[in-house]
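In this notebook, the sequence line spells out the residues, with the fold written below as integer tokens. This is how one looks.
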Amino acid sequence: MILDCSDSIGMNFSDAYDEFEATVKTYAPALVIIDPWHAFLGAGVDINRVNALRPVFQKLAHLAKNCQCAMILVSHVNKRAQGENANNAATGSSDFINASRSAFRVIFDDSDEDCRVMIHTKTNYAAYGKSVRYRIDDGGVVWDGFSDVTKQTLEAAARRRSTPWEVIQGDKEHSAINNALVEAIEDSANQFVPTRYSYEEFKGIYGELIFGGSQPKKALDAVKDRLADDGYYLKVCKVKKEGQSCNGFMIQRIDSTEAEQVAIPDGG
């Protein structure tokens, strides 16, 4: 059952709440979708004032419990409020999200203009769900698999002033660079003695782009934990090459089955 604006005049969550409650009870639905929810807020409630909305949401929660139905409240997006927390994009005060048990964002899919992506951005009672792709055609909603976009992707895109797909592509490229660096380091390691390389020497062997265009120390720090998981010890340090001290690192393969290991000194 769809009630459009002309049929719902007078219904709201504040001064005309009784009419709203009676309407829900009349139809006894399993799910109530209010789109947008702030259109039914009523004239006496300030949508932007902290704590002003909580009594409203408490009434809705009580109604949902009594009627044994779920409620989805649809909000428009305030693009200026995005950033560190993807849920801050919802219109109005933070009470809207704080009072919700679960929250989702729906965005356009940059790879397909006819497709949308629904992303789980808050959950109180369960694990985060996968992001779902869907499209709407004459027959209704058509589910179109899953998407790699996550809450973290949305927040990274807001910080970088880019799109979620640019963030994903950048992460994939960064991952490919890290994979190449890890493979090169592990291939160069010796199980019994530490092997030392200057940055320039390592680039001479594996190419100028082996550190991905980043500062070598930054690139090495990014893969250090991964190398440790694979059984390698990496340390950024000064190394001596042709009698001169220069920036570099040392690497050693650590085999825990060996009775003795060559000690790795602190100095270069």
